[in-house]
Amino acid sequence: MIILNKHQLITEQFPNGETKVKDFDQWIKADNLLEFTYQEDGDLIRLFFVKKRLEEAGASCKLWIRYMPYSRMDRKIEGDLFTLKYVAAFINSLQFDKVYVVEPHSETTLTLLENSVAIYPALDWLPKLMEKLEFSDNDRIVFPDKGAAARYLNSGYEDACVFEKQRNPQTGRIEAMKLKTGNIVKGAKCIIVDDLCSAGGTFLWAGKILKEMGANEIYLLVTHCEPRIFKGTLLEEDSPIDLVFTTDSMMNTMHPKLNYINLTTESYV
Prior knowledge:
The protein has six helices and 15 strands. By secondary structure, the chain is α/β, with parallel strands linked by helices.
């Protein structure tokens, strides 16, 4: 999905699969903002068509990426191609004046994308969520791995807990997980903070351990949530995770355990 200056652009397909972009000249300004939501690879060619049309009109443009496609392909492991660098090179070729990336998976995205700025809305939501849940000094912010800790640990939260996990190098499955930093007070409320949830294996591991250590309520705050969450057990009744707070950057399917937070550009651009 592509939104130009708050107007969603309409795209269709011809019978042979070619993309048709409906005319949007009436919404073009001298300085424009494109909001880009990736759902499948065809969205990248749609982005190409829209940006080229803006160039033809002599208009400048900034890009807001709700979720950076291929951001998890930020290193070469077990034969996987480093595809993030190719997608970043494609976006760079479109020459946006500035690129805002919501919760990039790692610093690699920012290194590869020219004129890029990272947006970390979870850091804005976290204090409000803590207030809503009536956090006390006995409650804890939890980072499920070193990647999350690197993104958020220096954000001013004392007594934060950090997990360390071990994955099978061939399958990528988690084989072990332990609390590396911090402690859990019996009866504590915990908010696990990360950028993305897929099936939720990492958070199930962390939640189970937190429960065993005495935590009473466990919440998950992630900016991006894939539909694959419904394939796992994270949302089931006996899951250690009580509620998930997320945005509609990747889906908007309703569920009693899902709470969607509205993410707008006004506060950041």
